[in-house]
Amino acid sequence: MAAISLRKGNTRLPPEVNRVLYVRNLPFNITSEEMYDIFGKYGAIRQIRIGTNKDTRGTAFVVYEDIYDAKTAVDHLSGFNVANRYLIVLYYQHAKMSKKFDQRKKEEELNKLQEKYGVTAKDLK
């Protein structure tokens, strides 16, 4: 209902709003069916990707068909309680996500070099 009222008015959406949502703090054992049940209430979903490896467990990407449905989902599901965990629902921002990945990659490379040359963090201070 709220999405319909948004579409009728010539409402400008903030620039960070997009169809792809990044969801954090999910229960590790949540299923894709449960995700579709929770997020499908707010509109047609194109795709859901749930993190499965050690670094991405508890996170997911939800892609909506329509940007207004995604906005409605963020408005209603941020802070929603699932299995005693409060969801963090954000708009996916490629620039921020790639910076985090680059930082992690640099840290791993630094650790490898420190191991290779026998340098510890204490030696650097």
Helical residues, percent: 40-55%
The geometry reads as elongated
Report the average pLDDT across residues.
84
Could you state the order of secondary-structure elements as H and E?
Answer: HEHEEHEEEHH
Largest sheet: 4 strands, antiparallel
Q: What is the percentage of strand-forming residues?
A: 15-25%
Distance between the termini: 59 Å
Report Rg: 19 Å
> What's the total number of strands?
6
Strand order of the largest sheet: 2-3-1-6
Number of helices: 5
Instruction: Return the structural class.
Output: alpha+beta
Q: Unreliable stretches, pLDDT < 50, 5 or more residues?
A: 1-5
Organism: Deinandra increscens subsp. villosa
Protein name: RRM domain-containing protein
Keywords: mRNA processing, mRNA splicing, Nucleus, RNA-binding
GO biological process, one term: mRNA splicing, via spliceosome
